[in-house]
Amino acid sequence: MKLVVVSAGLSVPSSTRLLADRLASAAAGHHSEATDVTVEVVELRDLAVEIAQSLTTGFPGPALGAAIDAVRGADGLIAVTPVFSASYSGLFKSFFDAVSGFDKDALAGTPVLVAATGGTARHSLVLDHALRPLFAYLRAVVVPTGVYAASEDWGAEGLAERVDRAGAELARLMRPAPADRTAPDSLGPVVPFAEQLAALSRG
């Protein structure tokens, strides 16, 4: 099974990436030993230029196209963003705009664990007023436990337990996609972006 982690952290090192890695480890750890879980991390800071270009051209570049393909082929998704102005970051939203713009059914039925980082606990409601509605609109299945980590949560009691609980919930919802995975609404097989772009250039 394939677990894809989308991290919208901008700094290096990043608390957003740290939380994403802990959630991925928890989710993978709750699968049985007989289940092979492959984890792929998508760092949005590395895709910022291509994401911006895709908004004006309507076409993802090669790296962004590969990231979109990873999300479309995921059996489970972890999406983590820093909080900016009491909501998700613009880079985070623009990436998922690009994903849904290329394939409106990319996340339909996909289990998603939402998480966020911020400087203060006052922004913890971002999980419910911003992230859950976004993924509900994309028709993903959002796990019950979201994880918010404020600056004071690192090293404090409670964060590790929330991470473990959220990871376990995601693991229970993940199911391997069929080999001939077909997009919802009879759109046909999911074809990688690179193949679609090559077909367009031949036409």
Automatic annotation (TrEMBL):
Its EC number is 1.5.1.-. GO terms for molecular function: oxidoreductase activity. The keyword Oxidoreductase applies. Keywords: Flavoprotein, FMN, Oxidoreductase. This is FMN reductase. Residues 1-154 form the NADPH-dependent FMN reductase-like domain. It comes from the Bacteria. InterPro entries: CE1759_FMN_reduct (IPR023932), Flavoprotein-like_sf (IPR029039), FMN_Rdtase-like_dom (IPR005025), NAD(P)H-dep_FMN_reductase (IPR051814). It is an enzyme of class 1 (oxidoreductase).
